[in-house]
Write a structure and sequence with these properties.
By secondary structure, the chain is α/β, with parallel strands linked by helices. It folds into 2 domains: 4-64 and 321-440, Alpha-Beta Complex (Aspartate Aminotransferase, domain 1); 66-317, 3-Layer(aba) Sandwich (Aspartate Aminotransferase, domain 2). The protein contains 16 helices and 14 strands. The protein has helices spanning 3-15, 54-57, 66-78, 88-100, 113-128, 170-174, 184-193, 217-230, 250-254, 280-283, 303-317, 323-344, 370-373, 378-391, 411-430, 435-440; strands at 33-37, 40-43, 48-51, 106-110, 132-136, 176-179, 198-203, 233-238, 260-263, 274-278, 350-354, 357-361, 393-394, 403-404. The strands form 3 sheets. Strands 4-10-9-8-7-5-6 form a 7-stranded mixed beta sheet, with helices on both faces. The longest helix has 22 residues, at 323-344. The two termini are 37 Å apart. The model has no long low-confidence stretch (mean pLDDT 96). The site of pyridoxal-5'-phosphate has 15 residues, from helix 5.
Length: 441
């Protein structure tokens, strides 16, 4: 890292804790950015990178997309934030979301995914009068107390007590149960132990916070049956998968309809906007509709966020743009290419993902749940990503984190990245970085 970036990062460290405004932005080297446009971002010293991190997936069309920026500029020339009643923009976005998401009859807008999942949990508890929430090991749902636990857990803590933060009351931790993804028996066990006490089951239908666990259809259908039978709500947290894998999220692809859906991230192409959708019956528990579950947020529905989301969704819907076709083709090209390179180099790798998302796990065998991810060679994974950054392809260098392709990426970007990966993986194999893996094989 050269001088200008370093000095800005150091200035940040003196005045912002750790120099970053979100913990996972701290990745062991001082990064400071001047600009981001399309598929590239440029650091303070002029270093240019092809961006596969995409702000943890918030960028779907490419950075600083003119269609989105222009829509925001037009909207805020007329109105910013009034804070009473509603606006045309809020109603327009709500209509687009209800049309897009199969389970959505009504929708609220929030500013972040964490607020959306927080509201979902509150609503589930308020509507059922039950205390427990069930989540899955390896799924992440944001920073609030009820859900901030058991994401990337070490083997000794996985499925056990692994809060992501201090300061969470024991009561909050104790009222969130942990099951294994793609394992209905682990869910049934909790329901048997806590009859009529579980308010909701929440899951990422495709757990992207550990890369890409692909859900088995019977698992999702089973969750639907179990929750219905026990009077619990089923919450799909589509903060990553929503709008990314299909306009209607993963529920459009799998045909399983949850009671509540949270979404965010990519829907605003970098602008802060998220939300919660559900049936009219479920959403009528919010206070403005006469229910008892509090709904509040100063910035909810602000014009800039609404305009960004409307413009993003309009691009995603445009058949001439063919967003899903484009990112799916490039995603396949990347996944097939990386698997081939690893196979040719004799490296045990399982390259997976979906549509725009790709991830090379360095392990042998199949991946169904978190249990299998404990076999990932985390050191090799982080080394691969760090060296890819050195080559000019920015991939988040922390184990199990996924990579994203946006509408702005091209076939030439993917081919250049694959050529870089061939160099990097070849060198890592020669240096014996996968030696431990080979010894275990
Ligand atoms: N849910 C999922 C699946 C997420 O991946 C995230 C963030 O990464 C959140 C919720 C929280 O969203 P936010 O960071 O906007 O609060």
């Amino acid at each position: 890292m050269t001088s200008v970036s370093r000095s800005l990062a150091e200035a940040a460290e003196r005045i912002i804790p750790g120099g970053v405004n979100s913990a996972t932005r701290s990745i062991g080297a001082p990064w400071a950015w001047r600009s981001a446009k399309g598929a590239t971002m440029t650091d303070m010293d002029g270093g240019v990178y092809t961006d596969y991190h995409a702000a943890f997936g918030a960028i779907l069309l490419g950075h600083s997309d003119e269609r989105v920026n222009d829509a925001v500029t037009r909207a805020i020339a007329d109105i910013d934030l009034v804070g009473v009643g509603t606006t045309e923009l809020e109603v327009e976005l709500a209509r687009l979301v209800v049309d897009a998401i199969p389970s959505a009859e009504m929708v609220i807008s929030t500013m972040s995914g964490s607020e959306a999942t927080f509201q979902a949990v509150r609503l589930a508890r308020g509507a059922t009068g039950r205390p427990f929430i069930l989540k899955f090991q390896g799924n992440f749902h944001g920073s609030y107390d009820a859900l901030a636990r058991n994401v990337i857990s070490s083997p000794d803590l996985a499925w056990g007590r692994d809060p992501n933060s201090s300061g969470i009351l024991d009561d909050a931790i104790d009222h969130t149960l942990i099951a294994e993804f793609n394992d209905l028996a682990s869910v049934q066990e909790h329901f048997a132990r806590h009859p009529e006490q579980i308010a909701a089951v929440i899951l990422e239908p495709v757990p992207h916070n550990v890369g890409a666990l692909l859900p088995e259809q019977e698992f999702l259908e089973g969750l639907r049956e179990i929750t219905r039978a026990h009077g619990s709500l089923l919450i799909f947290d589509e903060v990553i998968s929503g709008f990314r894998h299909a306009l209607g999220g993963y529920q459009e692809l799998c045909g399983v309809t949850p009671d509540l859906t949270t979404f965010g991230k990519a829907m605003g192409n970098g602008f802060p906007v998220a939300g919660l959708a559900g049936s009219t019956e479920a959403m009528s528990h919010f206070t403005p509709a006469g229910g008892s579950v509090m709904l509040a947020g100063t910035f909810n529905g602000n014009a800039a966020s609404m305009a960004a989301a409307i413009a993003t969704i309009e691009v995603l819907k445009d058949p001439e743009v063919d967003f899903y076709g484009h990112v799916g083709r490039l995603g396949d090209r990347m996944r097939v290419g990386l698997q081939q390179i690893a196979d040719d180099a004799g490296i045990a790798a399982h390259v997976t993902g979906l549509g725009s998302v790709f991830i090379p796990y360095f392990l042998d065998g199949e991946v169904r749940g978190y249990r299998d991810l404990l076999r990932n060679d985390d050191h090799a994974y982080a080394t691969f990503h760090r060296r890819m950054i050195d080559k000019g392809s920015f991939m988040y260098p922390m184990a199990l984190k996924r990579n994203h392709i946006s509408l702005a990426h091209t076939e030439a970007d993917v081919d250049r990245t694959l050529a870089q990966a061939e160099d990097v993986l070849g060198a890592m194999a020669r240096e014996g970085i996968f030696a431990a893996q080979a010894a275990n094989a």
